[in-house]
Amino acid sequence: MELKAISASRISSIDALRGLAVILMIQQHLLGWLWKRPVMDFQEMARQFPLMMTLNGLGMLAAPLFIALAGWGASTFLIEQGRKGILLLKRGGALLLTGYLLNLLTPHWFSPGSWFVLHLIGASLLLAPLLVRLKSGALLSLYFMVLLISVLLQYFLNTPLLLTEEHMRNLSLPGSVLRLALAEGQFPLFPWLALFVLGMASARWFSEGRRRRFFLLALSFFGGAVVLSLLYKTGLPFFTRGPLFRLFVPTPYMFPALTPYLLIASAFVLLMLGLSARASERPPHTIMGVLSPLGRVSLTAFLSHILLFCELSRLLGFYEGFSERGTVIVIVLVLLVYIILAKFWSRWAFCGSVEDWLKRLTA
What does the pLDDT look like over 27-43, one tens digit per residue? Predict the structure, then answer.
């Protein structure tokens, strides 16, 4: 998510990409909250329910897109628009406070100290005025440095290779709120700040006309993920034990986000940003007209779908109450409602949206 008012100039293909992230996010969350899934291991689930597991896998790409696009927007605001960082600091703080308010409104999912993607983006925006001073090469180096620090931090904290929801909301662990924010929440600063930094660097490459860099780096990151995973599969001690072994562990999940997954997610982000950069040079496609309005109310969609389907579903008794087919039908209908409402709302410049209110409050 990103506060859309940050940038005075809009790139419809970037808004459309944010709209795509909204779709990926909503379908994954609704799948988890509405489907009465059977209890079985991951491989068996993949064999018996390929559609649902594919949808879940696609949903894992939503957060990387949101975070990178927030970095893109922050970089555009601070450099291309020539504005000072005080407004960005206000909006970063507002997002962080909104995240903690969401914690209190969703007790079934979060604890008061939980650290989700909204908290991450808010904190990243607070850091953006400092990060923007770095050159593109330094930002890319910082991306890899954050990944390495994350591996070491998880090692010294003895972070489990699979974080449960109970762990990610547990404030009784040593370090409490700070531990969740830095390393063991859903989207801690380490390693997810790396995606924000990558988004900032991508905005630079876009403004400099370096379109090929997106695709070359995407290929390199994907290849790096494959190599690291193959090294882990060798079973050699250096790659499977010790302080750096999390660099090599391939996982089909994102809690915690380990290096091979992050590299693949980064490759996907760069590929999508590269395609969006090319699309921005051509006449707008119909799909942009469909997705762009949704992307401009991504924060509103984020908050509303959580309150409606994570909390209200429990109160009304339809939490995990649908079959596989029923869940897919509900997901399609909900997405259509969000897309249509966003399209109509665009006629009134999204007046009354969460984005609009935060813009007014932080102006």
Answer: 999 999 999 988 888 88
- The one-letter code for the residue type at 188 is P
The single-letter DSSP state of residue 285 is P
DSSP labels, 24-86: HHHHHHHHHHHB------HHHHHHH-HHHHHHHHHHTTHHHHHHHHHHHHHHIIIIIS---TH
Q: What is the DSSP string of 176-194?
A: HHHHIIIIISSS-HHHHHH
What pLDDT does residue 5 have?
37
Query: Where do the DSSP E strands lie in 98-222?
Result: none
256 three-class SS: coil
Tokens at 88, concatenated = 């960005």
Structure-block tokens of residue 324: 């596989």
- What phi and psi values does residue 322 have, to the nearest 5 degrees? -120, 150
Distances from the Cα of 112 to the Cαs of 215, 288, 311, in angstroms?
40, 37, 15
Query: Could you report the per-residue pLDDT of 85-132, keeping only the tens digit for each?
Result: 888 999 999 999 999 999 999 999 999 999 999 999 999 999 999 999
Distances (CA, A) of 184 to 57, 59, 234, 241, 295: 21, 20, 28, 20, 28
